[in-house]
Design brief:
Elements: E1 21-25, H1 27-31, E2 38-48, E3 55-61, E4 66-71, E5 76-78, H2 81-89, H3 103-115
Antiparallel strand pairs: 1-2, 1-5, 2-3, 3-4
């Protein structure tokens, strides 16, 4: 007797708010094997589909500033700010060579050092 393997995907139950940065997939392009199916976007609004009652989202695709309407949240994932800011949070502040830091970390430090060095975060 053979036992069938069952695979079940975990569906996202996340609710998104205006301004959230998300990774989203154009599911039709993905299943057709076409390139350019995954994008970074900013949530503009949510709305409920009149027939199905499902919550959908309107996004702005950041690479082209193109509006994308009716995105199913099952094909969206939140891009946490902590991931975007990790390079700044882990910048080698004692490193004499600023080239060792990423450009984002250098820009952030330059901005804050120009104001007042007391505004720098406490060392970790």
């Amino acid at each position: 007797m053979t036992q069938q393997s069952q695979t079940q995907a975990t569906q996202s139950q996340t609710t998104y708010t205006k301004g959230d940065m998300v990774l989203f997939r154009d599911v039709e392009r993905f299943w057709l094997g076409l390139p350019g199916h995954t994008f970074v976007g900013r949530v503009e609004r949510d709305w409920r589909h009149a027939d199905t009652g499902k919550v959908l989202y309107d996004l702005t695709e950041l690479s082209s500033n193109r509006a994308r309407a009716g995105i199913d949240p099952a094909y969206m994932r939140l891009l946490p700010p902590v991931d975007a800011m990790r390079d700044i949070d882990t910048a080698p502040l004692t490193e004499p060579d600023s080239g060792a830091m990423t450009p984002a970390a250098v820009a952030w430090l330059t901005q804050h050092l120009a104001k007042d060095s007391r505004t720098l975060p406490a060392p970790r």
